Amino acid sequence: MEKLDDKLGVAVWGLGRIGIPIFEAIQNGEQPLLKVVALGDWDNEYKGLKPLEQVKRLIEKITWPDASGHQPEFTLDINDLNQIVINGNTEEPISVFIGPDPAAYSLTDATFAADCTGVFWSREKAQAFLRAGISHVVNAAPMSEEGIPHYTNGINVVKFNPAEDDVISVASCSSKDFIYVAQALIDKGWDLPGTIFNGIHSATSTQNITKSLDNVVSHSSGASDAVVKVIPQLEGKIEGYVDRVHTTNGSKLFLTLMVEADKYLTQADIIEAMEEGSVRYPEELAVLHAKNPSTNYVRTPKYRKFSSVVATQDIITIPYRREGSPKMTLVQIPAYYNNEIGPANSQVRVMGKMAEKILEVKKHETN
């Protein structure tokens, strides 16, 4: 696999609400071992367009303001080969592939495929990237198939095995919101014998906008399965759903947990656990000492890159007192997240950790 300036190449596939901020995060140097070498996209909007017009349309998508009004700070141009040139750097153009099947192209310059399409959600489908020359497919969505690891930054990505893990998932925005809160509690030595989440989730591409303008759409969530793949001790102890509403970005989970400890827990105990978690997972978990905050907080530059932002003043604890039973406390924790920039940056951080492991192995092999 080729390296460019000691960086590993990334092909970002699916330039939408996750793919675009992934491209931007890598281009802005969020992970110094990564470099975007290819962009792939497909939609009906490209049909009938000539190659040059397709690339122009892609650039329009990338540079269009997101739901928060944010735009990339770099400039994009097109060279004679219909490649994208960033900030006038003609020495390192980015190849563009417009079509539904990655296997139709040569992607040998890329070590990773950051798949954000929602299409290649099984090992069989992800083979399309491997046939194109990709070494590792990193899926932005949970994958229900057994045997596909789900890695998250700071928790279990250290288990990544370059020789075996050719297809992985980074879970989802909702599951990561839960994962970092639950892990912060588990890190205290507390047990979670039962957990339920219900969420208020921004609209997605599969949601019927007309029906949801004046409606709350309840929807099952694959987040619980993804959580268990990251925190196996929660198997059989977690369930939940989300209500989708017609907002563009910014969601919230209510995490309701039975927490078993050596004492009945107070709000101050849970806040302390969240604060310690924000130190242990500083890129993923943040605490917000505000009461009844709006989802606008996770659109701001300060909070939008986190996987989970806990509103500490809205935490509720109720001791479950029953003679002869362990000391358990019913806890409700509201946690917010950005549906776009948060999971995108978390995925980039996971790929950065994977790149470290890959380069470490290569260095060992050459010595």
How is the secondary structure organized here?
Layout: E1 3-4, E2 7-13, H1 19-27, E3 34-41, H2 51-63, E4 76-78, E5 84-86, E6 95-98, E7 112-115, H3 123-131, E8 136-139, E9 167-169, H4 173-186, E10 191-202, H5 209-212, E11 217-220, H6 223-230, E12 238-245, E13 251-260, H7 267-280, E14 285-288, E15 308-311, E16 316-320, E17 328-337, H8 341-366
Parallel strand pairs: 2-3, 2-7, 3-6, 7-8, 8-9, 10-12, 14-15
Antiparallel strand pairs: 1-2, 4-5, 10-13, 11-12, 13-17, 15-17, 16-17
Helix pairs in contact: 1-8, 4-6, 4-7
Rg from Cα? 21 Å
Report the order of strands and helices.
Answer: EEHEHEEEEHEEHEHEHEEHEEEEH
Q: What does the average pLDDT come to?
A: 92
Q: Into how many domains do the coordinates divide?
A: 2
Derived structural class: alpha/beta
- CATH architecture call of the largest domain: 2-Layer Sandwich
Q: Choose one word for the global shape.
A: globular
Tell me the major beta sheet. 8 strands, mixed
CATH superfamily label of the largest domain? Dihydrodipicolinate Reductase, domain 2
Class of the largest domain, according to the CATH hierarchy?
A: Alpha Beta
* Tally of DSSP helical segments: 8
Helicity level: 25-40%
Strand proportion = 25-35%
Query: What name is given to the CATH topology of the largest domain?
Result: Dihydrodipicolinate Reductase, domain 2
The low-pLDDT segments are: none
What is the straight-line distance between the termini? 18 Å
| Strand elements, count | 17
